[in-house]
Amino acid sequence: MKKIIYLMAIAITMISCKKQQNDFVTFSGKITNKNSKSITLSNPQLNFNRVIEVDENGAFNDTINLKDGFYRLSDGKEATALYLKNGATITMTLDTKEFNESITFTGEGSNESTFLAKNAVLQKAMFKDKNLFNLPKDKFDAKVKKFITDFNNRINENKLDSTFVAFQKQNITSLENYLNKTHTDKLYANTVLAKGSVSPKFINYENHKKGNTSLDDFKGKYVYIDLWATWCNPCKQEIPSLEKVEKQYHGKNIAFVSISVDNPKDYEKWKKMVTDKNLSGIQLYAKNDKTFSKAYKVNSIPRFILIDPNGNIVDSNAPRPSNPKLITLLESLNI
Fold it and tell me: What does the alpha-carbon distance between residue 42 and residue 71 come to, in Å, rounded to a whole number?
């Protein structure tokens, strides 16, 4: 019996001596060349926003109870990402003149934030290469592969929270998909949609006035195409500028063609808007046909395209009517 009591006593002692995880984060540090008198820690999804005062020497210290996860720390216009878990004791230092490059995290629970800071620097350097998406496919693939391999090596080399790791692996997959798609689209734009290439065509789009109209109906004229929709506010904001340009080039060898890509459910809305607003130019409805927009890799509207009298591309992503560069371009063609 004494032996059992003795063992229980040892167990109780061990439990009482075991370090308990705090239900808060201790976050402190020093900012050189601070931008303001405070920094802000936030997470909109968690409806979390905490302002932390920074003294005249750039030092700060706070104890925060929060939900484990990703947070954004901002100092004026600069910001960085952190991963915080209750029980962590993190010290941060940074110089705002080299924000991402100088930031460091130390202390218990700082590995994830250190990983994010390093990743931000490497990702920024990759996107800083203005020639990235113009690289030949083999060189582009090699560069992306190296970036992904380095990322995975850093994930495996560091002791990181499993939830954090899972989320980062999702992020790197999304980034890789984005990079590959952007490069593919850029390559397509530089070849298939290059200046002088034969333009993709639209066929038998409904004309608001009557009948159907195709791109070939404009052979012999320049064609300035506006892809838009009634639900698109930026599209509608361009209408006054478009009408101004149309008026300036009235009687010239150019047709101004607006193609609605509205869904069938908004067909009547399109007809009514064209009538009520007395929209000028040639107003067409794509009839839910996406062949033309897909051929031009349209992923956002408004989108403007300029085609020459021979049906060849002048600019597959022409300036908007509100952009003075459009008039400069049209003037250069002596229309």
Answer: 6
How many Cβ atoms are within 10 Å of 55's Cβ, its own excluded?
A: 12
Backbone angles phi, psi at 50, to 5 degrees: -130, 125
Q: What values do phi and psi take at 197, rounded to 5? A: -75, 155
Contact 25, 64 (CB under 8 A): yes
DSSP state string for 41-66: EEEGGGTEEEEEE--TTSEEEEEE--
Distance set, CA 85 to CA 26, 45, 60, 102 (Å): 10, 16, 19, 23
Over the stretch 160-191, which tens digit does the pLDDT of each residue have? 999 999 999 999 999 999 999 999 999 999 99
274 burial via Cβ count (<10 Å: 0-12, 13-18, 19+): buried
Pairing of strands 104-106, 89-95: antiparallel
**What are the helix (H) ranges across the chain?**
2-17, 99-102, 111-128, 137-157, 162-191, 233-248, 267-276, 291-295, 324-332
Residue that the structure tokens 């020093």 belong to = 30
Q: By the 8 A CB rule, do 83 and 168 touch?
A: no
Contact by Cβ (8 Å): 147, 195: no
- 171-to-116, 167, 168, 211 alpha-carbon distances in Å: 12, 6, 5, 49
Give residue 54's pLDDT: 95
CB neighbour list of residue 11: distance below 8 Å, 6 or more residues apart: none
User: For residue range 122-136, what is the model confidence (pLDDT) as tens digits?
Assistant: 999 999 999 999 999
Q: Are 105 and 90 in contact (CB under 8 A)?
A: yes
DSSP 311-324: SBEEETTPPPTTSH
